[in-house]
Amino acid sequence: MAEGGSDREQSSVDGAMRQSLDSHLLECPICLEQLRQPKSLPCLHSFCLECLGSYITKELSGKMASVSSFSCPVCRKVTEPVNQSEGKESWAEQFPTNNLAVEIIQQLQKTDNPITCKPCEKKGNLNNQARFWCKLTNTYFCEACKISHHDLFHEECDPQDISEVNVSVILQQKASVNGCGKHEEKMEYYCEDHQILGCSKCIILDHRKCELVTSAEDYRDKLRKSSKIDDLLEELRKSADAMEILIKDVGEQLKTMTLDQDTALQSLTDIRKQIDERFNVLQKDLTDKLISAFKEEKENLEISRQQCERLMFSIQNTLTSSEDAALEDDTVGTICLFQRGQAEVESCKELIKELERSSRYTSIKNEYDTDLLSVGNITSLTMGKIVVNQQRRRLPSTVYSSIVPLSECQLKMTGKFTIKVASDKNDCKPYGVVFLPGGRIVVGDKANQKMKLFTDKGDFKFELELTDASCDLCRIDNNTVAVMLQKVKTICIVDVGESTLTVSSKIKIPKLDETCLGVTYHNNYYTVATTQSLYSVPASGGEPKQLLTIGSKCLYLASNQKNGHVFASIHTSTPDKVAVIRLSDDTHTDILNAGFVKGTTGIDVDREDNVYVCGWSSNNIMQMYGDGTKVRVLLTSTDGIKRPRAISVMGDEMVITNESADQKNFVHIFKLV
To answer: Which among 480, 545, 557, 486 has a CA at the least distance from the CA of 518?
Structure first.
């Protein structure tokens, strides 16, 4: 019975030992299993030889044969092999073996045998479990033998209680952590010129001419006195927090995208129930496109999350190991962890910058013609189309965020160009403008009854004659715009190519006596503004639905494509009168009065949900949040703004047209910086 109890206790110690062992030393970050033939990169991250070789081959596949480096799978530090002339499949073998990990694993395997008291063994008692370990003599003692033997001869030594401490620390100390892998001598020196540890032979052979060579202990003391270690630990904690924020953000994006997918698939299913079996092929085609689009964006987000998780786990392990190294006064471990921590902090900052540049908001929807379900309606057999909208998005704020929110940027004019072309009979009245991706700018010229296409460099590409005077223009998607024809009360849909404008369809608005002015598009509906009211018009056409009666004419409208809010610019200069209204579902909210901005005209929304309003009478451009808070002036007459008319925002750039006598034939381009 006594022996059985001892075995159970020993098994518990062994389990604690395995659980407490530093995972960053024994676990491969790629396969997440115990290291096999561990290889260390210069950044001090270790991987299985087979895993590292497969990773290098996969990362470099498809790249030029002359490529001479790869990035670490954890910290992404650019790494070069020792001999680039060898085939890439053998690069992994060139890196040094992590002898520390090998020895600790070997020591761990030895713990399958019970740890017993050595003095008791010599007396013939082979089953007396040890409780203390003497580092000086590398000997285990039970409590009685510690007092009667060890303490009598080694008063200056303080043996460790192995029943309470982290056993992995003991294993690391038993392993040859101080040994030089090249000369098998103790590493006692540090070259500050090359930032590397070495034994006496290393220093004599390789670093004789270096200016700053000190003992490892002196350099450790130097680090401690300069508070660099404490500063690094703080930076590592910040890095870990930053990675955790980004991982949470990716999870929220995946959740939103999954909801979008479920909603779109349900939409397809609901439509399918009301139509003939002939739609089977169409449904399968659209479903495949939807899932494919979702899968592609999901994979992109998963890659970003994996990058953040790998780096976060490595940083957390470094923090844990740093605490253990400090407690045990581990000179070499402290320096190695300090170097690795520096690399991880820099990698964290670089990864955040990369994600700030590439992060985007993705919305996946199925859009279809609602008249498809109308009895007796003649329409083509279609279930709509899968629409993937992408906009650049701002990451949640971290201690290392570098991108300034657009709400804190200032406007800087980057150029202007003339929009009056040879065929124009009159000076321009640029009452509408849309800025599209690819540097395409579409201008609506009321005076000459035209739409004109330019590049952001001012190159004239195409003109399209209209049958009526136009007012507002709006973006439908990245290659389609709509223009409101005032008197004939028609929405004209225009496809925008690289150098062409083509009318694809027209939507006549019936039973409407008022002059049509503003127009915007969202989710298969147009919102139309008149001199008295706001209306909703289906994209397929049909009778308008009145949304709101207004006191003054509304010249321009804008939509937030993410949340569906519609903003109406009410043309008034009367103090305390509403200047901007926000419509959401069946409700409306007054969010800005005619104070600093008077005679409001053009209006638009940026990717961060900020609203921009032109003050025609006040000669200024305003910016505010979508709820009407944080209102600020971006441009005034002192900046050369005179009678601003139309505005369109694309990313961090915008174009503005003016109605003053000296500016009406020009478009001005600005950038938020």
So the answer is: 557
Task: Name which of 283, 303, 414 is nearest 351 in CA terms.
Answer: 303
Cα-trace Rg, the chain: 35
pLDDT for residue 6: 44
Asked if 271 and 372 count as a contact pair (C-beta separation under 8 A), the reply is yes
CB-count exposure of residue 268 (10 Å: 0-12, 13-18, 19+): buried
Does residue 213 contact residue 189 with C-beta atoms inside 8 Å?
A: yes
Cα gap 626→509, rounded to integer Å: 29
> Which of 480-486's residues contact partners 24+ apart within 8 Å by CB, and which partners?
480/504, 481/434, 481/436, 481/442, 482/519, 482/521, 482/526, 483/432, 483/444, 483/451, 483/519, 484/432, 484/516, 484/517, 484/518, 484/519, 484/528, 485/516, 486/515, 486/516, 486/517
Q: What CA–CA distance (Å, rounded) separates 142 from 163? A: 11
State the Cα–Cα distance between residues 336 and 39, nearest whole angstrom: 16
Burial pattern 71-89, b for ≥16 Cβ within 10 A else e, equals bbbbbbbebebeeeeeebe
Instruction: Read off the tokens for 331.
Output: 């000179």
Banded pLDDT at 381 (limits 50, 70, 90): low
* pLDDT for 484: 94
CA 496 to the chain's CA centroid: 31
Tens of pLDDT, residue by residue over 135-175, are 778 788 999 998 888 888 877 788 888 765 444 455 545 44
The answer to whether 72 and 139 are in contact (CB under 8 A) is: no
Distances (CA, A) of 83 to 49, 72, 194, 230: 17, 17, 20, 37
User: By the 8 A CB rule, do 360 and 324 touch?
Assistant: no
Q: Under 8 Å CB-to-CB from 673, ≥6 apart: which residues? A: 409, 410, 411, 412, 652
Q: Beta-carbon neighbour count of residue 148 at 10 Å?
A: 12
E strand or H helix at 31: none
- Quote the CA–CA distance of 186 and 417 in Å, as a whole number: 72
Q: By mean pLDDT, which of 41-50, 331-340, 610-619 is the weakest?
A: 331-340
Query: Would you tell me how many other CB atoms lie within 10 Å of the CB of residue 95?
Result: 19
Residue 356 confidence (pLDDT) above 60: yes
Contact present, 652 and 672 (Cβ < 8 Å): yes
At 254, list the tokens: 């995946």
Which pair of structure tokens corresponds to residue 431? Answer: 């009452």
Separation of alpha carbons 419 and 397, rounded Å: 41
Question: What is each CA distance from 614 to 161, 609, 635, in whole angstroms?
Answer: 75, 17, 9
Residue 406 and residue 328: Cα distance in Å, rounded?
A: 49
Spatial CA neighbour of 338 closest among 1, 658, 11, 43: 43
